[in-house]
From TrEMBL, chain A:
It catalyses: [E2 ubiquitin-conjugating enzyme]-S-ubiquitinyl-L-cysteine + [acceptor protein]-L-lysine = [E2 ubiquitin-conjugating enzyme]-L-cysteine + [acceptor protein]-N(6)-ubiquitinyl-L-lysine. Residues 1-36, 480-526 are annotated as: Disordered. Keywords: Metal-binding, Repeat, Transferase, Ubl conjugation pathway, Zinc, Zinc-finger. It comes from Powellomyces hirtus. The keyword Iron-sulfur does not apply. This is RBR-type E3 ubiquitin transferase. Its EC number is 2.3.2.31. The keyword ATP-binding does not apply. InterPro entries: Ariadne, ARIH1-like_UBL, E3_UB_ligase_RBR, IBR_dom, TRIAD_supradom, Znf_C3HC4_RING-type, Znf_RING, Znf_RING/FYVE/PHD. Residues 495-504 have a biased composition (Polar residues). One of its GO terms (biological process) is protein ubiquitination. It comes from the Eukaryota. One of its GO terms (molecular function) is ubiquitin protein ligase activity. Transmembrane segments: none annotated.
Automatic annotation (TrEMBL), chain B:
PROSITE patterns: UBC_2. One of its GO terms (molecular function) is ubiquitin conjugating enzyme activity. PANTHER family: UBIQUITIN-CONJUGATING ENZYME E2. The keyword Transferase applies. This is N-terminal E2 ubiquitin-conjugating enzyme. It catalyses: S-ubiquitinyl-[E1 ubiquitin-activating enzyme]-L-cysteine + [E2 ubiquitin-conjugating enzyme]-L-cysteine = [E1 ubiquitin-activating enzyme]-L-cysteine + S-ubiquitinyl-[E2 ubiquitin-conjugating enzyme]-L-cysteine; S-ubiquitinyl-[E1 ubiquitin-activating enzyme]-L-cysteine + [acceptor protein]-N-terminal-amino acid = [E1 ubiquitin-activating enzyme]-L-cysteine + N-terminal-ubiquitinyl-[acceptor protein]. It comes from Powellomyces hirtus. Its EC number is 2.3.2.23, 2.3.2.25. GO terms for biological process: protein ubiquitination.
Length: 576, 149
């Protein structure tokens, strides 16, 4: 058993995880101008060999790094403007971290910009705590002689406790951070970070800081929080909005979540953001479709299966139970004798127009449903991913206990599942993309790529669902998996929605002979497992290749404006 | 906070009774101080000269951090920023509230808002607003017409 070469090709294969190690924790340290709105950034690509046309550069940042960026920006601007960091921070927040614009505007009118931002630069006028004799706080009416008071540089004075209550309310209740103003009515002076720090309790300060950080990322066009629940990472990606018509900027967070930097939705390659929006809207408006279906289908009186009327004739025959009935009155056809017009509610003349319109909308609907069904099918299959993953986990256990394969050596199954699911998501979005393509020779090329990937995916799926010869999955399952988990209980989308006429991919080879599990000599088992492993790796590699080909070509086509679209990109209205 | 609430409102009541600003009279303050009625008189030489109006103030325990709910009762002044249900479109009552504002300063603002009107009329969206508004004006998201009138 030669384990080493298995390891190698498994490891080399793993380009997905490389993002993690390469995009690591290196906070920018190469000068001042590599962060902030609109300036020249250091390259953010994880240095992979060659970037594929559909890939974008991005970087994952921890909260600490974001804090460091922010601090660095503040220090930089404070240096240029010659002011305290807390004032630079307030100014930057006012300018949504657009450093260039801030500096430009500030140089023109320092007082005006400071005032607008609620900042007073005069070092003599910093927020001061003091015990003031004979002072009565205008808010709480307290006048204790030893009461500590605070006045911002506007010199509106209040007691410290009132400020603490006020800041608690603003931060904890209202979620404010950036623009908390002096308590005096109409005063625009902003309570800066240093002052907040001195007044509030540690837990409120922590909340305040995290709110500030949120706004920092929210304000920056090049940063986005990972939308995964409870994820603390932010992604940096420099993609201009007009590029979103050419590429789907899929980024992968350190937490594993893959999402589109353009719209924040989960990865939707190769369908560009705007089409995704139109498509999802179309699907949401589907109630329209549902109405049509309910108006144009009826239930068989006998077996209750749904029957769609697809011609002018009212003589309906249920495909399932062969019950014959009249579409108009739903009565049994036998009551109508031999003449269908016994049912006089059907006025052919009046219905010609109606049927015409119906035919048209029916055509549009059928077109939509064609794409929608395939889209929904891949979505459904991907939703069953957890099931496939669990089944695969059982298989991996079984493989380990039946053969001499190590934990690392059985990882190929897991990896194959990941590749399968990723490709299913891609396929899903190819259908919404194709829905918006106008029919020309280019579309045919797209559909070829789509079909190739689909075949590859279904073949891999089938292979992963197949029991492993000589490996008793059930017995392993009993000890490792929760009781309700019945291995191979039912099929995870075994190619439903895929044309059955599809031919096998050229590289498909026949499987090892299925040998009865109990009488199989272990040498044979080892052999068949090694065989299976090779097949899975081959098919997985093929799926990856097909996916790359499809994504690369689609993106290139977008860049070259090769795809004819049947939709107005501004309104989302389909052309006829 | 309820300590501040009591102390602050007790003092406000005392001050208003001892030195009421011109045209502002506390009609009634509940024992728990949570609800007040204040009468304001239209200033001399304005459209509302000689008229009196009743304001209702309701305070939460979080006063003065939180603004009071202020509405006109009974005889609602006809004014471009006052709806016929008594709701008042005035920013300091909502998002521009400051804990340093008082009942007295709110009344004075409302009085001055009345004074600056050049025509007695309802807000243009009055009919729509009163149909959809909640009982408390604080539940409304206000877009302030303009600060001057
Ligand atoms: Zn106080
Ligand atoms: Zn102030
Ligand atoms: Zn994440
Ligand atoms: Zn997107
Ligand atoms: Zn039937
Ligand atoms: Zn009939």
């Amino acid at each position: 058993m030669s384990a080493m070469d298995y390891d190698d090709d498994y490891m080399d294969d793993d380009d997905v995880d490389e993002y993690d190690s390469d995009t690591g924790m290196d906070v920018d340290d190469d000068g001042e101008d590599d962060y902030g709105a609109g300036d020249g950034f250091a390259p953010v690509v994880a240095d992979r060999d060659v970037k594929k046309p559909y890939e974008v550069d991005f970087k994952v940042h921890s909260t600490d790094e974001i804090v460091a960026f922010q601090t660095k920006e503040v220090a930089h601007v404070a240096g240029i403007l010659g002011c305290l960091p807390e004032h630079a921070a307030t100014l930057l927040r006012t300018f949504k971290w657009n450093k260039e614009r801030l500096i430009e505007r500030y140089m023109e009118d320092p007082e005006g910009e400071s005032e607008k931002a609620g900042v007073v630069m005069d070092a003599q006028k910093q927020a001061k705590f003091a015990i003031v004799k004979g002072f009565e706080c205008p808010i709480c009416c307290n006048d204790d002689a030893d009461m500590e008071t605070l006045a911002l540089h506007c010199e509106h004075r209040f007691c410290r406790d009132c400020y603490a209550h006020y800041l608690n309310e603003k931060v904890a209740e209202q979620g404010e951070s950036r623009r908390i103003q002096c308590m005096s009515a109409g005063c625009k002076v902003v309570v800066d970070e240093i002052t907040v720090e001195k007044v509030v309790a540690p837990e409120i300060l922590a909340k305040y800081r995290s709110l500030l950080l949120r706004t920092y990322v929210d304000d920056s066009v090049h940063l986005k929080w990972c939308p995964a629940p409870d994820c603390v990472y932010a992604i940096e990606c420099h993609i201009a909005s007009n590029q979103l018509l050419e590429v789907v900027p899929t980024v992968r967070c350190k937490c594993g979540h893959q999402f589109c930097f353009g719209c924040g939705l989960p990865d939707h390659q190769p369908c560009i953001c705007v089409l995704v929006r139109f498509w999802l809207k179309k699907c949401a408006d589907d109630s329209e479709t549902a109405n049509w279906i309910s108006a144009n289908t009826k239930e068989c009186m006998k077996c209750m299966s749904t029957i769609e009327k697809n011609g002018g004739c009212n003589h309906m025959t249920c495909k399932k139970c062969k019950h014959e009935f009249c579409w108009v009155c739903l009565g049994p056809w036998s009551d109508h004798g031999t003449a269908w017009y016994n049912c006089n509610r059907f006025d052919e003349k009046a219905s010609i127009d109606a049927r015409d319109t119906q035919a048209k909308s029916r055509q549009a609907l059928e077109r939509y449903l064609h794409y929608y069904n395939r889209y929904a099918n891949h979505e459904q299959s991907a939703k069953l991913s957890s099931e496939l993953l669990e089944k695969t986990a059982i298989k991996m256990e079984a493989l380990q206990s039946t053969s001499t394969l190590s934990w690392i050596e059985v990882q190929f199954l897991r990896k194959a599942c990941d590749v399968l699911l990723e490709s299913r998501m891609t396929l899903k979005w190819t259908y919404s993309f194709a829905y918006f393509l106008s029919r020309d020779n280019m579309t045919a090329l797209f559909e070829d790529n789509q079909r190739d990937l689909e075949m590859a995916v279904e073949n891999l799926n089938e292979l992963l669902e197949r029991p492993i010869p000589g490996v008793d999955v059930a017995s392993t399952a009993a000890t490792t998996i929760t009781p309700q988990q019945q291995p191979s209980h039912h099929h995870v989308n075994n190619g439903a929605g895929t044309p059955t006429s599809m031919s096998k991919e050229p590289s498909a080879t026949s499987l090892p002979p299925l040998t009865p599990s109990h009488s199989t000599p272990s040498v044979l088992v080892e052999d068949s497992i090694r065989d299976l492993r090779q097949q899975v790796l081959d098919k997985m590699g093929y799926v990856k290749t097909r996916r790359e080909v499809l994504l690369s070509d689609t993106t290139q086509g977008l860049r070259e404006h090769r795809w004819g679209m049947n939709v107005d990109m501004k309104t989302g209205i389909l052309f006829d | 906070m309820s300590n501040i609430f009591t102390k602050r409102l007790t003092k406000e009541l005392r001050d208003l009774q001892a030195n009421p600003p011109a045209g502002i009279v506390v009609d009634k303050a509940d024992d728990d101080l949570k609800s007040w009625k204040v009468v304001i008189r239209g200033a001399e030489g304005t459209l509302y000269d000689g008229e009196t109006f009743k304001l209702q103030f309701k305070f939460s325990n979080n006063y003065p951090l939180e603004s009071p709910e202020v509405i006109f009762l009974d005889n609602i002044p006809i004014h471009p920023h006052i709806y016929s249900n008594g709701h008042i479109c005035l920013s300091i009552l909502y998002d521009q509230w400051s804990p340093a504002l008082t009942i007295s300063s709110v009344c004075l603002s409302i009085q001055s808002m009345l004074s600056s009107a050049v025509k007695k009329e309802r807000p243009p969206d009055n009919a729509m607003y009163i149909l959809t508004a909640k009982k408390s004006p604080k539940a409304t998201t206000w877009a302030f017409h303009d600060d001057k009138v």
